[in-house]
Design a protein that fits this description.
Layout (H helix, E strand, L loop, with lengths): L1 H18 L20 H20 L3 H7 L11 H19 L22 H15 L5 H7 L8 E3 L2 E4 L6 H7 L4 E6 L2 E4 L6 H5 L1
Antiparallel strand pairs: 1-2, 2-3, 3-4
Helix pairs in contact: 1-7, 3-7
């Protein structure tokens, strides 16, 4: 279980690095003036301009967020076909659950020995649901989690009942931050599960 926890705790830092800087944007304080208050017409015009500017900023995501969440370029074919996209979907669910410290993450994982789905052992499930959410709580902010929820995962390298998701399955910006790490999944009864024992080898060793 130690290896399991070490890997799990290393993943949030990796996701944040891949998402880019988490620095909070600076907020300029409005300048105060000793002059008289604007007329009603001027105040109304200023308010309308502010609303229009806010709407424009909201409609256009920042370059970092847009670059991290756009789909990878390609010819439209998904690596690994249906199996590849099914593994990618589980990977996305895993990332979102981890970012939100959601207990449902345990149902997406292999057990502590990496030999069967966590859900096949009620004892392992109970322990996982008690430990992981509490440990992950607060490691990723709500704003950062919302960015991770927008990231697209496309396909996976399939070899039998093993799937590997790496930087090539993400957009270029996110893939660069992901580096040489990969997420490995195992298939049981046509369902993919995250194999933490064999995933994020580089992250866990840092």
């Amino acid at each position: 279980m130690r290896r399991f926890l070490v890997t799990t705790l290393a993943v949030p830092a990796l996701l944040l690095a891949a998402c880019g800087s988490d620095d909070e944007p600076s907020v300029e304080e409005p300048a105060t003036s000793s002059s008289s208050e604007p007329t009603d017409d001027a105040a109304e015009e200023t308010t309308e301009d502010a609303v229009a500017e806010t709407a424009e900023e909201t409609a256009a995501p920042s370059e970092d967020v847009a670059g991290a969440t756009e789909e990878p370029e390609g010819d439209g074919e998904v690596q690994g076909g249906e199996d590849g996209q099914a593994a990618a979907a589980v990977t996305k669910d895993f990332m979102v659950a981890l970012a939100n410290a959601d207990p449902e993450i345990c149902g997406l994982l292999m057990d502590f020995t990496g030999s069967a789905p966590m859900s096949e052992s009620q004892e392992d499930m109970d322990l996982c649901e008690q430990v992981l959410p509490t440990t992950l709580e607060g490691m990723i902010t709500e704003e950062q989690a919302s960015i991770i929820e927008l990231i697209e995962v496309n396909g996976a390298d399939i070899e039998g009942d093993t799937a590997t998701v790496d930087k090539d399955n993400f957009s270029e910006l996110f893939g660069e931050g992901f580096g040489d790490d990969s997420i490995v999944l195992q298939k049981f009864d046509d369902t993919w599960y995250i194999d933490l024992d064999n995933s994020f080898q580089g992250a866990a060793s840092n």
